[in-house]
């Protein structure tokens, strides 16, 4: 029986390479959508719809926690903006660890480990700690070596490719600051 992996998915393009690698390792992969702080809401909807379509296209089972909680996220990071990325990772990985435990998955992991822009050691430590807390095992893989391959594949598949990480702060860093410099 194949090991079952719950893969937290932040967006469709970032899902491609980790899914491919885990499947090549013989693992049965389930995708998990939970990204409650993507801003604006229309961006959240677009990314969610693209994940649903891509999961179906690739034949991966998708577990959805379709919640948009912008207010809760903003309350969580208010006056802690310097820790916002850690708090965001913690929020999403905690939910993933909980679902992995309840679903009796062998492992859980995240597509955040595909990005060159994410703090891998922080995510690894956080995932391993949550794994111990919830009785699930975090599967660390450095998927960054497939960065270019994943980008090319997402372009070939004509997937929607967002231009910022997701939260209101990253949206501002991408689009707003250029108007104030």
Spans of at least 5 consecutive residues with low confidence: none
Number of helices: 7
Shape: globular
* Backbone structural class: alpha/beta
What is the total number of structural domains? Answer: 1
Q: What profile does the largest beta sheet have?
A: 5 strands, parallel
- Beta-strand percentage range: 5-15%
CATH fold name, please? Rossmann fold
Overall CATH architecture: 3-Layer(aba) Sandwich
Distance separating the two termini: 56 Å
Written as H for each helix and E for each strand, in order along the chain, the element string is EHEHEHHEHEHH
Q: What is the percent of helical residues?
A: 40-55%
Q: Strand tally, please?
A: 5
Task: Kindly report the spatial arrangement of strands forming the biggest sheet.
Answer: 3-2-1-4-5
What radius of gyration results from the CA coordinates? 16 Å
Question: Looking at this structure, what is the CATH superfamily?
Answer: HUPs
Mean pLDDT: 94
CATH class category name: Alpha Beta
Description:
- The chain has 181 residues and is an alpha/beta fold.
- It has a single domain, classed as Rossmann fold.
- 51% of the residues lie in helices and 12% in strands.
- It has 7 helices and 5 strands.
- Strands 3-2-1-4-5 form a 5-stranded parallel sheet, with helices on both faces.
- Helix 2 links the parallel strand 2 and strand 3.
- Helix 1 packs across helix 6 and helix 4 runs parallel beside helix 5.
- It starts with a strand and ends in a 5-residue tail after the last helix.
- The model has no long low-confidence stretch (mean pLDDT 94).
């Amino acid at each position: 029986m194949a090991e079952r992996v719950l893969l937290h998915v932040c967006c469709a393009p970032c899902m491609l390479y980790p899914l491919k690698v885990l499947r090549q390792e013989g693992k049965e992969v389930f995708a998990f959508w939970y990204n409650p702080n993507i801003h604006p809401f229309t961006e959240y909807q677009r990314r969610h719809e693209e994940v649903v379509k891509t999961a179906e296209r690739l034949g991966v089972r998708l577990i959805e926690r379709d919640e948009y909680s912008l207010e809760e996220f903003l309350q969580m990071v208010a006056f802690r903006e310097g820790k916002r990325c850690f708090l965001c990772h913690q929020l999403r990985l905690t939910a993933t660890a909980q679902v992995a435990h309840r679903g009796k998955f062998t492992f859980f992991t995240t597509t955040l480990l595909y990005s060159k822009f994410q703090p891998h050691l922080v995510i690894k430590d956080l995932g391993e700690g949550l794994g111990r807390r919830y009785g699930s095992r975090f599967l660390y893989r450095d998927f960054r070596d497939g960065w270019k391959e994943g980008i090319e594949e997402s372009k070939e598949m004509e997937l929607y490719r967002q231009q910022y990480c997701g939260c209101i702060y990253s949206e501002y860093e991408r689009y707003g600051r250029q108007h104030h410099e």
